[in-house]
Design brief:
Blueprint: E1 2-7, E2 10-13, E3 18-26, E4 30-39, E5 46-51, E6 57-59, E7 67-72, E8 77-82, E9 91-101, E10 104-109, E11 113-118
Parallel strand pairs: 2-11
Antiparallel strand pairs: 1-3, 3-8, 4-5, 4-9, 5-6, 7-8, 9-10, 9-11
Length: 119
Amino acid sequence: QVQLVESGGGLVQAGGSLRLSCAASGSIFSINAMDWYRQAPGNKRELVARITNGGNTNYADSVKGRFTISRDNAKNTVYLQMNSLKIEDTAVYYCHVIATSTGYTATYWGQGTQVTVSS
């Protein structure tokens, strides 16, 4: 089993920055892709950013140039640096990983962290 613990959400004014962290722990053999999703009220959960174990990244068009995803493989941690935040970035942000434990590969979700951007 793999557990994900997220931190770093909060309230920030438009134009400000926040950094989210998500640390994975448990019986981990390897972690493949690490992602950040978000879900705003009334909306579907959407992929914000992804980073592979090789370091390749991709982003939703709405956050390109403002958000940066990175990972520390030694710490099994993924980060999301969010700059120039907009009101429409307000959502619950979820960490998601594809990890291999003893004998199987599965996907895991964090508990979510609220990001609120005010005017």
